[in-house]
Amino acid sequence: MAYSDKVLDHYENPRNVGSLDKNDPNVGTGMVGAPACGDVMKLMIKVNDSGIIEDAKFKTYGCGSAIASSSLVTEWLKGKTIDEAYAIKNSAIAEELALPPVKIHCSVLAEDAIKAAVADIKAKQLAKETV
Amino acid sequence: MSNTSNYFELFELNPAFNIDVATLETNFRKIQSESHPDRFVTATSTEKLQSMQLATLANEAYQTLKQPANRAKYLLEQHGITAIADTNTAMPADFLMQQMEWREAMEDAVSEKDIAVLEKLLLEMRTEAKRLSIELSHLIDEQHDYAAATASTRKLIFIDKVCADILKAIEKLED
Protein backbone atom coordinates (compact mmCIF):
# COMPACT_ATOMS: atom_id res chain seq x y z
CA MET A 1 0.00 0.00 0.00
CA ALA A 2 1.30 3.43 -0.91
CA TYR A 3 1.72 5.96 1.85
CA SER A 4 1.08 9.64 1.16
CA ASP A 5 4.07 12.01 1.09
CA LYS A 6 2.99 13.53 4.41
CA VAL A 7 2.85 10.13 6.09
CA LEU A 8 6.28 9.26 4.72
CA ASP A 9 7.70 12.58 5.89
CA HIS A 10 6.49 12.05 9.47
CA TYR A 11 7.48 8.40 9.37
CA GLU A 12 11.00 9.13 8.23
CA ASN A 13 11.46 12.27 10.36
CA PRO A 14 9.11 11.85 13.29
CA ARG A 15 8.69 15.04 15.34
CA ASN A 16 8.84 15.08 19.13
CA VAL A 17 9.65 11.45 19.81
CA GLY A 18 10.33 10.74 23.47
CA SER A 19 8.94 11.16 26.93
CA LEU A 20 8.31 13.86 29.52
CA ASP A 21 8.51 13.38 33.28
CA LYS A 22 5.31 11.48 34.05
CA ASN A 23 5.50 12.48 37.72
CA ASP A 24 5.49 16.18 36.87
CA PRO A 25 2.09 17.57 38.01
CA ASN A 26 1.96 19.60 34.78
CA VAL A 27 2.42 16.57 32.54
CA GLY A 28 -0.50 14.49 31.30
CA THR A 29 -0.03 11.04 29.81
CA GLY A 30 -2.37 9.26 27.42
CA MET A 31 -1.89 5.63 26.49
CA VAL A 32 -4.04 3.81 23.99
CA GLY A 33 -3.86 0.67 21.89
CA ALA A 34 -5.49 -0.63 18.73
CA PRO A 35 -6.14 -4.37 18.91
CA ALA A 36 -6.96 -4.38 15.20
CA CYS A 37 -3.24 -4.08 14.50
CA GLY A 38 -1.55 -4.32 17.92
CA ASP A 39 -0.33 -0.72 17.79
CA VAL A 40 0.42 1.07 21.05
CA MET A 41 0.67 4.83 21.44
CA LYS A 42 1.84 6.99 24.34
CA LEU A 43 1.31 10.72 24.20
CA MET A 44 2.56 13.15 26.86
CA ILE A 45 1.68 16.83 27.13
CA LYS A 46 3.12 19.52 29.37
CA VAL A 47 0.67 22.25 30.29
CA ASN A 48 1.64 25.64 31.76
CA ASP A 49 -0.31 27.48 34.44
CA SER A 50 -2.46 29.27 31.85
CA GLY A 51 -3.64 25.93 30.50
CA ILE A 52 -1.56 26.13 27.31
CA ILE A 53 0.27 23.06 26.03
CA GLU A 54 3.97 23.94 26.02
CA ASP A 55 5.41 20.63 24.96
CA ALA A 56 4.25 17.32 23.57
CA LYS A 57 6.09 14.05 23.08
CA PHE A 58 5.05 10.69 21.75
CA LYS A 59 6.17 7.13 21.49
CA THR A 60 4.30 4.87 19.09
CA TYR A 61 4.92 1.26 18.24
CA GLY A 62 2.98 0.54 15.11
CA CYS A 63 2.64 1.10 11.41
CA GLY A 64 3.71 4.19 9.46
CA SER A 65 0.25 5.74 9.62
CA ALA A 66 0.09 5.40 13.41
CA ILE A 67 3.53 6.98 13.80
CA ALA A 68 2.63 9.79 11.38
CA SER A 69 -0.69 10.44 13.15
CA SER A 70 0.97 10.79 16.55
CA SER A 71 3.90 12.81 15.19
CA LEU A 72 1.47 15.21 13.50
CA VAL A 73 -0.65 15.74 16.60
CA THR A 74 2.39 16.61 18.73
CA GLU A 75 2.99 19.47 16.28
CA TRP A 76 -0.64 20.54 16.41
CA LEU A 77 -0.85 20.39 20.20
CA LYS A 78 1.89 22.88 21.02
CA GLY A 79 0.39 26.30 21.80
CA LYS A 80 -3.16 24.99 22.07
CA THR A 81 -5.28 25.08 25.23
CA ILE A 82 -6.25 21.69 26.61
CA ASP A 83 -9.86 22.31 25.57
CA GLU A 84 -8.76 23.05 22.00
CA ALA A 85 -6.64 19.90 22.11
CA TYR A 86 -9.61 17.89 23.30
CA ALA A 87 -11.62 19.10 20.32
CA ILE A 88 -9.18 17.71 17.72
CA LYS A 89 -11.02 15.18 15.58
CA ASN A 90 -9.56 12.09 13.97
CA SER A 91 -11.11 13.16 10.65
CA ALA A 92 -8.83 16.24 10.61
CA ILE A 93 -5.78 14.03 11.19
CA ALA A 94 -6.87 11.57 8.50
CA GLU A 95 -7.50 14.39 6.06
CA GLU A 96 -4.16 16.11 6.68
CA LEU A 97 -2.26 12.84 6.18
CA ALA A 98 -4.53 11.59 3.36
CA LEU A 99 -5.01 8.29 5.17
CA PRO A 100 -6.79 5.54 3.21
CA PRO A 101 -9.95 4.04 4.78
CA VAL A 102 -8.08 0.99 6.14
CA LYS A 103 -5.78 3.32 8.11
CA ILE A 104 -8.45 5.57 9.60
CA HIS A 105 -8.14 3.66 12.88
CA CYS A 106 -4.61 5.10 13.24
CA SER A 107 -6.08 8.59 13.39
CA VAL A 108 -8.72 7.37 15.86
CA LEU A 109 -5.87 6.12 18.00
CA ALA A 110 -4.20 9.56 17.94
CA GLU A 111 -7.44 11.35 18.82
CA ASP A 112 -8.05 8.97 21.70
CA ALA A 113 -4.47 9.44 22.93
CA ILE A 114 -5.04 13.22 23.09
CA LYS A 115 -8.30 12.73 24.98
CA ALA A 116 -6.61 10.34 27.42
CA ALA A 117 -3.71 12.77 28.00
CA VAL A 118 -6.11 15.67 28.58
CA ALA A 119 -8.18 13.55 30.99
CA ASP A 120 -4.98 12.69 32.87
CA ILE A 121 -3.87 16.32 33.22
CA LYS A 122 -7.38 17.35 34.32
CA ALA A 123 -7.36 14.62 36.97
CA LYS A 124 -3.95 15.84 38.16
CA GLN A 125 -5.15 19.46 38.32
CA LEU A 126 -8.21 18.40 40.27
CA ALA A 127 -6.03 16.47 42.72
CA LYS A 128 -3.85 19.57 43.15
CA GLU A 129 -6.86 21.77 43.93
CA THR A 130 -8.26 19.42 46.50
CA VAL A 131 -4.98 19.14 48.41
CA MET B 1 -19.33 -32.63 0.44
CA SER B 2 -20.20 -30.24 3.20
CA ASN B 3 -22.68 -27.42 2.66
CA THR B 4 -21.98 -25.44 5.77
CA SER B 5 -20.21 -22.13 6.05
CA ASN B 6 -19.68 -22.54 9.79
CA TYR B 7 -15.97 -23.17 10.33
CA PHE B 8 -16.45 -25.58 13.22
CA GLU B 9 -19.10 -27.65 11.44
CA LEU B 10 -16.95 -27.75 8.33
CA PHE B 11 -14.26 -29.66 10.23
CA GLU B 12 -16.71 -31.57 12.43
CA LEU B 13 -15.55 -29.80 15.57
CA ASN B 14 -17.49 -28.63 18.59
CA PRO B 15 -17.79 -24.84 18.60
CA ALA B 16 -15.41 -24.25 21.49
CA PHE B 17 -12.13 -22.52 22.22
CA ASN B 18 -10.52 -25.80 23.23
CA ILE B 19 -10.48 -27.79 20.02
CA ASP B 20 -8.95 -31.08 19.04
CA VAL B 21 -6.12 -29.86 16.85
CA ALA B 22 -5.54 -33.33 15.38
CA THR B 23 -9.15 -33.46 14.11
CA LEU B 24 -8.76 -29.98 12.67
CA GLU B 25 -5.61 -30.99 10.78
CA THR B 26 -7.03 -34.31 9.54
CA ASN B 27 -10.34 -32.87 8.35
CA PHE B 28 -8.66 -29.89 6.73
CA ARG B 29 -6.38 -32.22 4.73
CA LYS B 30 -9.38 -34.36 3.79
CA ILE B 31 -11.31 -31.39 2.37
CA GLN B 32 -8.19 -30.11 0.66
CA SER B 33 -7.66 -33.37 -1.16
CA GLU B 34 -11.37 -33.83 -1.94
CA SER B 35 -11.58 -30.38 -3.48
CA HIS B 36 -8.25 -30.50 -5.31
CA PRO B 37 -8.53 -29.21 -8.92
CA ASP B 38 -6.91 -32.42 -10.25
CA ARG B 39 -10.06 -34.29 -9.27
CA PHE B 40 -12.25 -31.95 -11.28
CA VAL B 41 -10.50 -31.95 -14.64
CA THR B 42 -13.47 -33.56 -16.38
CA ALA B 43 -16.15 -32.12 -14.09
CA THR B 44 -18.82 -29.61 -15.13
CA SER B 45 -18.06 -25.94 -14.64
CA THR B 46 -20.55 -25.80 -11.76
CA GLU B 47 -18.73 -28.62 -9.99
CA LYS B 48 -15.39 -26.95 -10.62
CA LEU B 49 -16.65 -23.71 -9.16
CA GLN B 50 -18.13 -25.45 -6.13
CA SER B 51 -14.94 -27.35 -5.38
CA MET B 52 -12.91 -24.19 -5.69
CA GLN B 53 -15.24 -22.35 -3.32
CA LEU B 54 -15.00 -25.20 -0.84
CA ALA B 55 -11.20 -25.19 -1.00
CA THR B 56 -11.15 -21.44 -0.39
CA LEU B 57 -13.58 -21.71 2.51
CA ALA B 58 -11.60 -24.57 4.07
CA ASN B 59 -8.40 -22.55 3.84
CA GLU B 60 -9.97 -19.53 5.48
CA ALA B 61 -11.59 -21.68 8.16
CA TYR B 62 -8.36 -23.52 8.91
CA GLN B 63 -6.35 -20.30 9.27
CA THR B 64 -9.01 -18.93 11.60
CA LEU B 65 -9.40 -21.95 13.85
CA LYS B 66 -5.73 -22.91 14.00
CA GLN B 67 -4.65 -19.68 15.61
CA PRO B 68 -5.96 -19.10 19.19
CA ALA B 69 -6.58 -15.35 18.88
CA ASN B 70 -8.41 -15.78 15.57
CA ARG B 71 -10.38 -18.70 16.96
CA ALA B 72 -11.48 -16.64 19.97
CA LYS B 73 -12.37 -13.71 17.70
CA TYR B 74 -14.46 -16.02 15.51
CA LEU B 75 -16.27 -17.56 18.50
CA LEU B 76 -17.04 -14.10 19.89
CA GLU B 77 -18.34 -12.98 16.49
CA GLN B 78 -20.79 -15.86 16.61
CA HIS B 79 -22.07 -14.37 19.85
CA GLY B 80 -22.43 -11.02 18.15
CA ILE B 81 -19.27 -9.49 19.61
CA THR B 82 -16.68 -7.68 17.52
CA ALA B 83 -13.56 -7.95 19.64
CA ILE B 84 -11.46 -5.56 17.62
CA ALA B 85 -13.74 -2.71 16.66
CA ASP B 86 -11.59 0.10 15.20
CA THR B 87 -13.18 2.68 17.41
CA ASN B 88 -12.39 0.93 20.66
CA THR B 89 -8.88 1.91 21.72
CA ALA B 90 -9.30 1.72 25.48
CA MET B 91 -7.17 -0.99 27.05
CA PRO B 92 -6.34 -1.43 30.75
CA ALA B 93 -3.63 1.09 31.69
CA ASP B 94 -1.38 -1.49 33.34
CA PHE B 95 -1.58 -3.67 30.24
CA LEU B 96 -0.57 -0.80 27.95
CA MET B 97 2.23 0.15 30.33
CA GLN B 98 3.50 -3.42 30.14
CA GLN B 99 3.24 -3.31 26.33
CA MET B 100 5.35 -0.16 26.26
CA GLU B 101 7.95 -1.75 28.54
CA TRP B 102 8.17 -4.85 26.35
CA ARG B 103 8.41 -2.70 23.24
CA GLU B 104 11.15 -0.56 24.78
CA ALA B 105 13.09 -3.63 25.95
CA MET B 106 12.81 -5.02 22.42
CA GLU B 107 13.98 -1.75 20.90
CA ASP B 108 17.02 -1.67 23.23
CA ALA B 109 17.91 -5.29 22.44
CA VAL B 110 17.65 -4.60 18.71
CA SER B 111 19.93 -1.57 18.91
CA GLU B 112 22.44 -3.60 20.93
CA LYS B 113 22.00 -6.53 18.51
CA ASP B 114 21.40 -8.76 21.53
CA ILE B 115 19.69 -11.88 20.21
CA ALA B 116 19.80 -13.62 23.62
CA VAL B 117 17.71 -10.86 25.19
CA LEU B 118 15.25 -10.98 22.27
CA GLU B 119 14.89 -14.72 22.68
CA LYS B 120 14.25 -14.30 26.38
CA LEU B 121 11.60 -11.69 25.60
CA LEU B 122 10.05 -14.02 23.04
CA LEU B 123 9.82 -16.77 25.60
CA GLU B 124 8.18 -14.37 28.04
CA MET B 125 5.65 -13.37 25.36
CA ARG B 126 4.88 -16.97 24.50
CA THR B 127 4.35 -17.84 28.15
CA GLU B 128 1.95 -14.92 28.43
CA ALA B 129 0.14 -16.02 25.24
CA LYS B 130 -0.19 -19.51 26.66
CA ARG B 131 -1.58 -18.13 29.92
CA LEU B 132 -4.16 -16.07 28.01
CA SER B 133 -5.15 -19.15 25.98
CA ILE B 134 -5.82 -21.13 29.13
CA GLU B 135 -7.79 -18.18 30.51
CA LEU B 136 -9.81 -18.03 27.28
CA SER B 137 -10.75 -21.70 27.42
CA HIS B 138 -12.12 -21.18 30.93
CA LEU B 139 -13.94 -17.97 30.02
CA ILE B 140 -15.46 -19.18 26.76
CA ASP B 141 -16.00 -22.90 27.22
CA GLU B 142 -16.80 -23.10 30.91
CA GLN B 143 -17.98 -19.74 32.18
CA HIS B 144 -19.47 -18.39 28.92
CA ASP B 145 -18.26 -14.98 30.06
CA TYR B 146 -17.94 -13.34 26.66
CA ALA B 147 -17.26 -9.84 27.96
CA ALA B 148 -14.20 -11.03 29.88
CA ALA B 149 -13.22 -13.23 26.94
CA THR B 150 -13.29 -10.17 24.67
CA ALA B 151 -10.83 -8.37 26.95
CA SER B 152 -8.50 -11.39 27.00
CA THR B 153 -8.75 -11.83 23.23
CA ARG B 154 -7.74 -8.22 22.70
CA LYS B 155 -4.73 -8.75 24.97
CA LEU B 156 -3.77 -11.90 23.09
CA ILE B 157 -3.80 -10.01 19.77
CA PHE B 158 -1.32 -7.48 21.19
CA ILE B 159 0.91 -10.24 22.56
CA ASP B 160 0.86 -12.07 19.21
CA LYS B 161 1.90 -8.85 17.49
CA VAL B 162 4.87 -8.37 19.82
CA CYS B 163 5.86 -12.04 19.25
CA ALA B 164 5.74 -11.57 15.49
CA ASP B 165 7.79 -8.37 15.71
CA ILE B 166 10.42 -10.00 17.96
CA LEU B 167 10.70 -12.95 15.54
CA LYS B 168 11.16 -10.55 12.64
CA ALA B 169 13.84 -8.65 14.59
CA ILE B 170 15.70 -11.87 15.42
CA GLU B 171 15.62 -12.99 11.78
CA LYS B 172 16.93 -9.63 10.66
CA LEU B 173 19.81 -9.75 13.16
CA GLU B 174 20.69 -13.30 12.18
CA ASP B 175 20.93 -12.41 8.50
Question: How would you characterize the overall build of this protein?
Answer:
- Chain A has five helices and three strands, in the order αβββαααα.
- Chain A is of the alpha+beta class and 131 residues long.
- The radius of gyration of chain A is 14 Å and the shape is elongated.
- The mean pLDDT of chain A is 93.
- Chain B is mainly alpha-helical.
- The model of chain B has no long low-confidence stretch (mean pLDDT 92).
What would a concise description of this structure say?
The complex is a heterodimer of chains A (131) and B (175). Chain A is of the alpha+beta class and 131 residues long. Chain A is 47% helix and 20% strand.
Q: How can the largest sheet of chain B be summarized? A: none
> What global shape of chain B is seen?
globular
Query: What is the CATH T-level topology of the largest domain in chain B?
Result: Monooxygenase
Spatial separation of the terminal alpha carbons of chain A: 52 Å
Reading off the top of the CATH hierarchy, the class of the largest domain in chain B is best stated as Mainly Alpha
What structural class should be given to the helix and strand makeup of chain A?
alpha+beta
Order of helices and strands of chain B: HHHHHHH
Low-confidence stretches of chain B: none
- Percentage of residues in strands of chain A: 15-25%
